[in-house]
Design goal:
Layout: E1 8-12, H1 17-28, E2 32-37, H2 40-52, E3 56-61, H3 67-81, E4 86-89, H4 104-132, E5 135-140, H5 153-172, E6 178-185, H6 194-199, H7 203-208, H8 222-233, E7 244-247
Parallel strand pairs: 1-2, 1-4, 2-3, 4-5, 5-6, 6-7
Helix pairs in contact: 1-2, 1-8, 3-4, 4-5
The chain binds nicotinamide-adenine-dinucleotide (NAD).
Amino acid sequence: MGRVAAKACVVTGAGSGIGRAIAQRLALEGGKVVCVDINPTAVAETVAGIQAAGGIAAAVTADVSNSVAVDGFIRQCVELYDRIDILVNNAGVNLPGIFHEVSNDEIDRTLNINVKGYMYGSRAAIPHMLRQQAGSIVNISSVNGLVAEPFLSVYAASKGAIVMLTKGIALDYAKQGIRCNCICPGWVDTPINYAHAEMMGGLDKIYAEIDRFQPIGRPGEPSEIANLALFLASDEASFLTGSIIAADGGMTAQ
Ligand SMILES: NC(=O)c1ccc[n+]([C@@H]2O[C@H](COP(=O)([O-])OP(=O)(O)OC[C@H]3O[C@@H](n4cnc5c(N)ncnc54)[C@H](O)[C@@H]3O)[C@@H](O)[C@H]2O)c1
């Protein structure tokens, strides 16, 4: 038996990086996973990989900043698997820039995807979780929800909002079997960082000097975030709600 055996899961941003690793890990541990991404090819690849390994998964192409689409994929999970036990809000963008030059479009996209997308997902899932009197929501924030960095003001604001959204949802449903927790990853090796890395002198330079900001001295792997997401999603974390956990190679210990 897996650690989330037979649980119905939704993972957003499952076409790449951390979301793909979480979807794979939940499926490996017996979860039935609705994989959501705005990129149809990428999410189809994730699902094909899970199915090839003997897991259960379905691909959905959707934009998490569209509340109608979000209602649709949560409903699809309930139609496919009769319930929704686990929601991982993970889809995100990082559009770096010095603050006074940030465009309206960049502000809107960042907040619509990184903040409203998480609100829409949770709002759609919670009525089903209330009916079940059980459910686990895992929000992927960032160390930038806890500490700022140059060129990331809007991203950091969006990730800080997720820290408080997590606490608020945790309090609203603490007595009804619904837990909501948050992971704040440090620098993990995925494409979301490439634009920011370019502004900071390039990925090679960042990785050569990484122990200056990430004491463990290397980037994280998506699978290392997935390990924690699996734990928080599972019943093993039954006493955790409203917890904000950094998985950051020591970055915020400094
Ligand atoms: N990689 C890191 O260092 C790091 C650190 C801290 C937090 N995070 C957070 O982890 C999460 C996952 O990021 P990642 O590193 O795996 O990046 P990634 O770029 O590899 O993956 C992000 C995925 O989200 C999808 N996506 C983007 N906009 C979407 C939308 N509107 N609707 C649906 N899907 C959409 C993309 O297509 C992509 O597949 C993000 O919320 C990010 O902010 C990442």
